[in-house]
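Milestone 3.1: sequence recovery, worked example.
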């Protein structure tokens, strides 16, 4: 796409509602900030959104996320650096982002619930779907690249 669509000015009111919802939801979550940013980066990498990957790498560094965890995120299963909560969050993020290939079965749900409370599980789903929305918005409007 040659010209980037100016979604934030063209449909600014609607985007404003989504930004406010995004900020409100993240402010109210009980999930750890670094866990949220790991999920945001990982999903953005899966979706190929350089802009969102870059933005969330910056946020992750602001909340002091371990630099090795940021480096090895694409190969998190082999890195053995991540907590059980982080591993489960990344696995769930992968499954939801690629939902056409995966079903959250009862057994998987029960495994997730041994690590996350019901509220945390629902918040995590919200975080995953939120970043998927923004990745898709950026990709569909030609705003997914970085120039810095």
């Amino acid at each position: 796409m040659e010209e980037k669509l100016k979604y934030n000015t063209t449909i600014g009111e609607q985007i404003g509602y989504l930004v406010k919802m995004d900020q409100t939801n993240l402010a109210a979550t009980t999930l750890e900030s670094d866990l949220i940013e790991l999920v945001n980066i990982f999903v953005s990498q899966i979706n190929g959104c350089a802009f969102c990957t870059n933005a969330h790498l910056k946020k992750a560094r602001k909340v002091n996320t371990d630099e090795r965890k940021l480096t090895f995120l694409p190969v998190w299963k082999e890195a053995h650096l991540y907590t059980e909560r982080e591993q489960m969050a990344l696995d769930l993020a992968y499954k939801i982002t690629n939902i056409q290939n995966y079903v959250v079965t009862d057994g998987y749900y029960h495994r997730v619930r041994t690590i996350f409370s019901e509220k945390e599980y629902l918040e995590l789903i919200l975080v995953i779907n939120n970043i998927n929305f923004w990745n898709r918005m950026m990709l569909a409007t030609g705003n997914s690249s970085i120039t810095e």
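The chain has a mean pLDDT of 88. The chain has nine helices and no strands.
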